[in-house]
């Protein structure tokens, strides 16, 4: 499934870093069982999580920053403290909208499937599309414009750009008309550019995981 784990897969792809995904090809129930086994030796809230040597991390912004810091001589890390902090703030905002999207499609029970509560999710989805998503679109569109249209942080690709691409990709899949009609021309051009990067393009062409249609990103 192309959920939160895809943020990390895309980063590994861009950086050309090999990794072992223990959940690959597993059903939701099997994955839950693996997670429970992992919790016997690690303290964490939920997957996705990464293990590197004696480092074990969860939470998307923390993992994404760690990958950027550790891999390919820090190529995807912001170049100074100010930009580093700004990147962390952008990632926190990105996680906010991902969470709001998930909760809208899984309402009122955030632990139950979308299929089991389609009727009750209809109003939260409508509110998300009409009131919440435009605010995030406007913020990210303006943030990108203010930084020169090419990158979100500094003047070179960062982990924020790769993660932002995945969110936009999920929105376009789940809400194609909303995505195309939104006043976000800079974001749409940004998404096209990131998709054309050689390693990202290869990942997009070869990945077997699919969006499941139960929200922009599960």
Automatic annotation (TrEMBL):
PROSITE patterns: GST_CTER, GST_NTER. Coiled coil: none annotated. GO terms for molecular function: glutathione transferase activity. It comes from the Eukaryota. Residues 1-75 form the GST N-terminal domain. Pfam families: GST_C_3. GO terms for biological process: glutathione metabolic process. Residues 84-216 form the GST C-terminal domain. InterPro entries: Glutathione-S-Trfase_C-like, Glutathione-S-Trfase_C_sf, Glutathione_S-Trfase, Glutathione_S-Trfase_N, GST_C, GST_superfamily, Thioredoxin-like_sf. PANTHER family: GLUTATHIONE S-TRANSFERASE (PTHR11571:SF263). This is Glutathione S-transferase. It comes from Didymodactylos carnosus.
